[in-house]
Amino acid sequence: MTRMGAFRDAVGDWASGGPGGPASDGALRLGVRTAVLLEGLSDLAAVETLAARHGRDLSAEGVCVVPMGGAMSVGRYAELLGPPGLGLRLAGLSDERERGFFDRAFARARAPHGDVFVCAADLEDELIRAMGTARVEEIVRGEGDLRAWQTFLHQPAHRDRPREQQLRRFLGTRKGRKIRYGRLLVEALGPEQVPAPLGGLLDSL
Question: 167 falls in which pLDDT band (50, 70, 90)?
Fold first, then answer.
């Protein structure tokens, strides 16, 4: 496990009610200056992949990307990591429907609202719309998921939905699939296809 990964785990333990000492010590030892609060692991995969594509080592820059396990945890993480706690600069990536959780948490933590970058539905939706459904389906085929995709399309609950919605739902139908495709879709983006919320977040760090 990387040292930043160990720090991230210490933060998760702290947010779950454990001691704060290991996280505080880790922040000082690693020179952490910014915490990027994300809803989940698929967002983490996408952010880290885009950073690597741009030749950036976020850990070396003192940036820790923190998946929280859901937007409703943002208040706790912002309190622990932001100005009231470790004093780190906060940034975040949010779905539109969860924006209120982030806005309230950042306000309580005295962190700028402008450092929260908002996806219209979620990051998968942004990536699918940026690339186009044909390119995403091509990646699905290349990953050996064509049969699963075709089976999904024949299910009555999904058959008549727009293609973008079908793909977005498909990526969430199996454990680990959203994480894997979070990385794959970002790797396949053209230079002009990076969704504004994702690109804006990385540029802000």
Answer: very high
